Amino acid sequence: MEENSCPQQLSEKVEEDKNNFNEKETNSGPEETSSQVSNPEGADKPAEETRVQYNRLKLFDKVMQKSLKKFVEIASDKGFAAMFRPLYKKNPQKMETIHKKFAEELQKTIQEDISRLTEEGMLEFKLDELDKLEDAAKNDLNPAWRPSGIPEQDFCSFLMPYYQKQEAFLRLELKKIQAENAALAQRVQTGRENISQTEQRISTAVDEWKAAVAEFENLASSLCPADVFNV
C-alpha cells in the first residue's frame, strides 16, 4: 500500500503546486500587466504569449527547490549526531561545523546537478514548446488524430510524408549535382577548345618560322653564291 501511494502522493503534490502557481500568476495580474504595458520591448508581443511563457519551467524550478529543501532537511543535525554519536560526545562544536559544511556541499552539488540536467536536457526549450502546444490545442477545434485500428495503414500514413520529403530533397540535390556536373563539363570543353586553339597557333607560328628560315637561306645563297669563294 505504501509503494502504491507514493506515486499518487507525488502526482497530487505536483498538481497542487501547479494550481498554486497558476493562482499566484493570476492574482499578481495588475502589477505585472502595468509593468508589461510600460515595457516598450514587450509591447508588440501578445499578452497571452507573455503569460504562458516559461510557465512549466517556473513550476519545474519550484518543485525542484522544494524537493531539494526537503532532501536537505532529511540530513538534519539530529540524524548526523545519531550516526556519529561518539564523535559528537568528544567534540560537538567541530562536528556541528562539519555537518554545516556537509549540508552546504550537499545542497550545492544537488543544485549543480539540477542545473546540468536542465541545460543538457534543454528543458527550457522543451517546456516552452509544451506551453505553446497546449495553447495551440486550446484554439484548435479539429478532432485530434486517432489510430484507425489498422497498424499497416497508420504506419504508412506516418512514414509516407517523411519519405516524400526525403524524395523531394534528394531530387533537388540531384538537380544541383547535375547542374554542377554540366557546368564542370562546359568548363572542361572550353579548356579543351582553348588548348586546341593554342596548339593551332603554335603550329602556324612554327610553319611561318620555318618558311622565314627557308626564305632567308634562299636569299643568302642567291646573294653569296658558293663559287665566288672558290680559289
Which labels suit this protein?
231 residues, chromosome, 0% strand, disordered N terminus, mainly alpha, single chain, centromere, PMF1/Nnf1
Topology:
Layout (H helix, E strand, L loop, with lengths): L1 H26 L1 H10 L8 H6 L2 H20 L2 H7 L1 H6 L1 H29 L2 H17 L11 H73 L8
Helix pairs in contact: 1-4, 4-7
Overall description:
The chain has 231 residues and is mostly helical. Among the domains are: 9-21 and 53-138, no CATH class; 176-231. The chain has helices at residues 2-27, 29-38, 47-52, 55-74, 77-83, 85-90, 92-120, 123-139, 151-223. The longest helix has 73 residues, at 151-223. The protein is elongated, with a radius of gyration of 43 Å. The N and C termini lie far apart (142 Å).
SSE order in H/E notation? HHHHHHHHH
Based on Cα principal axes, name the global outline.
elongated
How large is the share of residues in beta strands?
A: under 5%
Measured between the Cα atoms of the first and last residue, the distance is 142 Å
Radius of gyration computed on alpha carbons:
43 Å
Oligomer: single chain
Question: What would you call the structural class?
Answer: mainly alpha
* Percent of residues in helices: over 70%
Summarize the structure.
This protein is mostly helical and 231 residues long. The protein is built from nine helices and no strands. It has helices at residues 2-27, 29-38, 47-52, 55-74, 77-83, 85-90, 92-120, 123-139, 151-223.
